[in-house]
Amino acid sequence: MTLLLHLGLFFFAAHILQPPERPSLPSLVVGSAGSYTVKPGDLLTSIGARLGIPRLTIARSNDLPADARLRIGQVLNLDNRHIAPTVREDGILINVPQRLLFYFEMGNLVSWYPVGLGAADWRTPLGTLHVLTKETDPFWDVPVSIQREMRRRGEKVRTRVPPGPDNPLGRYWMGLTPGSCGIHATNAPTSVYQFRTHGCIRLHPEDAEDLFSRVTIGTPVEIVYEPVLLARTEEGKIFLEVHPDVYRRAPDPRRAVRVLAERQGLEAELDWALVEERIRERGGIAGEVSQKEPD
What is the pTM of this model? Predict the structure, then answer.
């Protein structure tokens, strides 16, 4: 299947599968499996950052070394299926381990994007927030803590950065909490889908422009931490998605899967060998773990 453009977000279609009435299970499986033809300048990291796929997962699924150099015209098998942690009536939902942002309107998933988030020592805050400010071509008032870091690294200490190509906020800023945390564009697209920020949520420039056009002052923003997700599609297939516990906040993933399965009475429907494989890989992509029907 050729990768297609969907909602201006990714290079291939994001199929949204509505599940049956199981309110405590996540309700959306998005993304698709397909092929991608390598273009000039493509790297495993840049492809993964744009499409929301861990670099190592791309390498493993294509039998490539982690540091593989790609050839122009090379065809890769890619899979960016993900599970939305829940469905909101309106607003933004960010799941830190997934490095994904989901935007809802009237209970419908309108768009979703890969994001860059806070490093382990600069964690993105969790909880319920709101969009407090919106700015185009913002100035970056460098927080004192980041100025100290610049000084420790021997870098030139900047206190205020004007709009332009050197501004790490890019062209769009959506402030969330008083101080420094916000959602913004970036002048370093390959840093998206990484844990490298000082707590902010970083988007590809075109995704930031799209989200900026949708949100208003007061839009609710919920930031959660769920490295293990389980979902059933309307066809009855069960998908599992497991991510590394980068902030060391989550319980054992095996226990998390069992709790989710027991809550919905799904234990007998899971292929536990596939579940164990998904947990061991922690590949960050939703994969089917349903028991196969006997021939």
Answer: 0.86
